[in-house]
Amino acid sequence: MSFEGFVPWPEDLAHAYRAAGVWPGRTMGSYLWEWAETRGDRVAVVDGTTRLTYRDLAVRADALAVGLAGRGLERGDTVLVQLPNTWEFVVVTAALLRLGVVPTMMLPPHRDHELTAIGRHVGARALVVPGTWRGFDHQELAFRVAAALPGPAEVLVVGDDVAGGAVDVRALLATDGDTDGAVEERRRWLDEHGPAPSDIAVFLLSGGTTGVPKVISRTHDDYLFNIVHCARACAFGEDTVYLAVLPAGHNFPLASPGLLGALHAGGRVVLSASPRPEPVFAAIEAERVTATSAVPAVVLKWMDAAATLKPDLSSLRYLHVGGSMLAPDIAERMARTLDCRLQQVYGMAEGLVCYTPPDASDEVAFGTQGPPVSAFDELLIVDEDGTPVPPGGTGELLTRGPGTPRGYYGVPDQNRLSFTEDGWFRTGDLVRLTPEGHAVVCGRVKDLINRGGEKISAGEVETLIQELPEVAEVAAVPAPDPVYGERVCVFVRFHGGCSLSLAEISRLLTERGLAAFKIPERLEVLTALPHTAVGKADKKALKALLADRNPLPRAA
Ligand code: OOB
């Protein structure tokens, strides 16, 4: 493996986890053919009218993997994957896992700013993008980003109008007319050239509190651990029909347990390209979906729409809700309105995932975020000095365990802040534990804005706004919002004689290639920002100011 910024697992721990079977000691791609042999004709993936069996998935993933190898990609490379929820997302991911080329999971709204910064950080060798998606030309974006990367990078397109110079992914994964011999030969070649369990399987993006998002390297070992335990915590099995609604590059719909968990359990994955109520309800009805997961902001929209659309949700047994704060009364209303078991989830791409059990009492299901999915996960609640708080007290949650890696990729200075010397990850979340060991998330100490589950680093937005010549000082804080929970509000002090409107700031940040969900939706102009003793913008004071301004001016 050639990933220099990778923080490996301590040898002794890795050895102990493998010896005890905590880590299965396998790669994720190694399951594909096992599944194809035991459940070959069963449908694995549904996307509209496209249905792939477990065997189709293995055959196509192998074809694509070998095709990509033919284009020069090899084990230890990484590519940026920016695909919507389509069946090709699953095949591309499976192919990359098989080949040992690490998918760096980007999100469809990401633009030049995120793709270029992350692509440089991980040393991306290619980008996998849709052609045009929601009216936006991702192919053109990918060519721009590829040109801005230091090394050569290919543009791989999943779409109809593949430009000259780009690689047509659909052509690579087509297998029509392949003989059994060809399929077998590809399988053998990939078995020999694929990754090891300790290799990085995927790169995930962290909500991050500094600059652009931090990159989390997940090995086959530690990612499989999460997938298996989350699938167990959600009672996934062969009868599971899981609907992937949130962007599949997020850890939540991808692997907690998400689509990988559903496949691992022998179930079926249905993909919805949009979280809007109409397509989601239609997919639940048509495919008799049994489980899905979403952030509270999305479920609130489903609840509103259910009143008028009156969908048949009788197949839906479990709804996993997490990613941002959820009040107990709303949790209860969600379960009643959609008539299913609510499983709250508190998780993070950095590893730890907590789930309320499927058969939890109402008190637990509505009032807590549940215990960690595995008994091997350790939780510690500390105060501001790092001292453990008394049982039941609230403080910052530190965690460690076989599914929580020991460092972000390629940021040693940040790692000294985010991880303790003995391997605890500082979540930045304020949590208390019930006597039964269930987590209750109470807030956070990290400087980010959680807009309906999308994490936005305040620092990233501030850095871009600070670069505008009119701006003397800026601080981004969460503004409370009834649907999204929070939206980005910026407090700005302009240089004398200068000013910008919210619309102008929005346009300038869009021009700089910032993803739309990070663009501030509220602007508060101050002649002086309050400061803390160390001279930083005092965000506590700013949030209080925001709460005092009633009603708040709303973004256009
Ligand atoms: C999930 O993952 P990320 O990496 O996008 O965000 C993690 C952060 C947590 O540190 C916490 O601040 C927040 O999102 N969060 C919650 C929460 N679940 C996550 N805050 C309050 N209540 C909750 N239930 O968001 C994620 C990953 C896997 C499964 C589920 C969510």
Automatic annotation (TrEMBL):
- A Pfam family in this protein? AMP-binding
The AMP-dependent synthetase/ligase domain is annotated at 33-409
SUPFAM superfamilies, per the entry: Acetyl-CoA synthetase-like (SSF56801)
Q: Where is the AMP-binding enzyme C-terminal domain?
A: 460-536
> What is an example of a GO molecular function annotated in this UniProt entry?
acid-thiol ligase activity
Segments for region (Disordered): 386-405
Query: What is this protein identified as?
Result: Triostin synthetase I
- The protein's organism comes out as Amycolatopsis rifamycinica
